[in-house]
Amino acid sequence: MEKLSYDAIVIGGGLAGLMAAHEIAVSGYKVAVISKVFPTRSHSSSAEGGIAAYIEGNSDPNDNPDYMTYDTIKGGDFLVDQDAAELLSQKSGEIVRIMESWGTLFNRQPDGRVAVRYFGGQTYPRTRFVGDKTGMALLHTLFQRVSGLDIDFYNEWFALDLIRDDKRVVGVVAMEMKSMTPVFFKARAIVMATGGMGMLYAHSTNAYINTGDGYAIALRAGAALKDPEFVQFHPTALYPSDILISEAARGEGAILINNKGERFMARYAPRKLDLAPRDIASRAIITEIREGRGFPGGYVGLDLRHLGEDYIKERLALAYEAAKNFSGVDATQEPIPVRPAQHYYMGGIDVDITGQNPDLIGLFAAGEAACVSVHGANRLGSNSLLETLVFGRETGRAVAKFLSEHKEEDSYSLDKEAEKVVDDAYKFVKSESGVHFGEILNKLRNVMWEKVGIFRDEDGMKDALSQIIELRKMTSSMYVLDKSTTYNTEFFNALELRNMLDLAIVIARTALERKESRGAHYRTDYPERDDKNWLKHTIAYLKGETVEITYKPVRVTRWKPEPRVY
């Protein structure tokens, strides 16, 4: 097997990965980015509504970083590590100014300052935007910036597993998707920036590439996930395709209505109404549908008509086009049909505020792949783009510091370990008959949606756990139809399923264990938040078929838990 050596490997070419790679490269280190898609196709491009930022002189005069920090902590139902939230707020204006100076063309106010809109859970409006295509604009800006640096890109390569020497990572085995050629990439530091896991759920706003690869790779290497039970569901996915209709629509004044024409959010969040945090709005929509106030098929309406045709087409062009092309709805004339769908993952690889994992020396993570934890039990809209850039930069700088302090150490030959990674990948799809991987995948996505979704209870999650264990066993007789070695997407889809199953068992097990409701984790059998017993982070390890769970305290600096009322 070919071996290539770098100082650092970044797995993932979205905003977090590119920002980390930028910081490592400008520090003078040799870095490679491994991405299973071309970087500008990363899921960061699908973040629509904006990036939160307090900018002095360009914000509400009553706003300040403390309000922003408090909103993040309250939005996360007080499971947020408050030092991380403070850092996010304090660096927000700086990071937006940097992206603007690098070429991002933010919308403007009439006086020329960067425009701002409300997003859910914000005391004051602080979301900066490029229409409703903000993520795409930021990603193209950053990719252009790093393209001028000494960074090697391995696009359309699939990361299989990490290679470790005792307690330190020493590289990763990845496979070129075009030819299925494996390569052992050696490095002193690895950054996991692999994004989310939406394909675990039957309904998701995520791209097909979001299969939880980084989480599973870290788990198999012996690293823990933090707070894996916390999965966010976005209230407004287009019916029936589940394409995201950005929170920007409600930020610009759109309202949710039921089949009676009622603005029903007044019942669930009388002060914030349609701009309540996502977990509250998603549960409200499902409740309306279950109680017979939804439309046939199971959705509610998102009404933009009062905003006017010109305003809709200027500020919400993507939402307008998506509704027209995929649901046949003219948003200037009728409400857009929407329902909740999986959207984001608050859980992730356990890291500290610098992006460093405590289990494995040299392992870092950033963006949605990581759990800092800056989002706690529920992420506020427009904090995700901010997190990718702020903590992508912090992680990249931490990697550069790590590399300066950790010279390359001698280690015994790891060729056998690298070969075993490749053998295990082929073994996973070795059967000639039995059950097709697609059948297992569909069953997994349905059980996660039905049993480990927006509303949860003990019986449902126990059933989900037993089904997931059975699905994992079924993979021993799993096959793929395509046996070619050129762009065999079915082979890689099956390996993605392996990652999804490893993550699913951890999510279901930890969700069953957390006997309270907090943020996006809502249990009908334990409907109240329980700070006495559960104001703590879940730390989960995967050991074969067993999930080992421990806990660590939430870092509270200044804001004590209080009732979460909107």
Automatic annotation (TrEMBL):
GO CC term, one of those recorded: plasma membrane
A GO molecular function held by the record: electron transfer activity
Classification via Pfam families: FAD_binding_2, Succ_DH_flav_C
Entry EC no(s): 1.3.5.1
Keyword Electron transport applies: yes
SUPFAM superfamilies listed in its UniProt record: FAD/NAD(P)-binding domain, Succinate dehydrogenase/fumarate reductase flavoprotein C-terminal domain, Succinate dehydrogenase/fumarate reductase flavoprotein, catalytic domain
Subcellular location: Membrane
Chief localisation class: membrane
A single BP term in Gene Ontology: electron transport chain
Keywords of the record: Electron transport, FAD, Flavoprotein, Membrane, Oxidoreductase, Transport
Database matches in InterPro entries: FAD-dep_OxRdtase_2_FAD-bd (IPR003953), FAD/NAD-bd_sf (IPR036188), FRD_SDH_FAD_BS (IPR003952), Fum_R/Succ_DH_flav-like_C_sf (IPR037099), Fum_Rdtase/Succ_DH_flav-like_C (IPR015939), SdhA/FrdA/AprA (IPR030664), Succ_DH/fumarate_Rdtase_cat_sf (IPR027477), Succ_Dhase_FrdA_Gneg (IPR014006)
Cofactor: FAD
Domain Fumarate reductase/succinate dehydrogenase flavoprotein-like C-terminal: 442-566
All copies of domain FAD-dependent oxidoreductase 2 FAD-binding, residue ranges: 7-385
Catalytic site positions: 278
Superkingdom as given in the UniProt entry: Archaea
Topology in membrane: Peripheral membrane protein
Family: Belongs to the FAD-dependent oxidoreductase 2 family. FRD/SDH subfamily.
Protein's recorded name: succinate dehydrogenase
